[in-house]
Design a protein that fits this description.
Length: 164
Amino acid sequence: MAAPEEPLRRRKARERGPEPGSSSGPGRHPASGPAHLRAGTFWLTRIVLLRALAFVYFVAFLVAFHQNKQLIGDRGLLPCKTYLKSVQRHFQGQIGWDAMSYTPTVLWLLDWSDMNSNLDALALLGLGISSFILVTGCANMVLMATLWVLYMSLVNVGQIWTRQ
């Protein structure tokens, strides 16, 4: 069976004829309107989904910005500097792939002298990126992966809260 010469969508659009209110001049195909208005595109779903995910990240980073210093900061309940040092001791004092895979966080690469500033910087960077996506509705894989890495960096240095 031979393959059709033109896509099914174009054949159906030609069979329907020009839609009311559309200008189909010579050389212009009736179904070749703007990409975000054609049938079969998911522009509305993409915008709603990206903005909803950006809103979730925005709230998460806002909460992290307000609570990280008290929970995992330098003088917090469970300081992440102490946790990272214990992980480093567990792996014989080296920060290699084993330690990074055990506790994957960007904080391994930063200076630990002022952990509160590092935690605030991660939270503010996440707030900035997520608010940009919220306002513009524009996102790509790099921005979304950056949000994920920043969030996982904060989550992985939190410890399990147990009753003593």
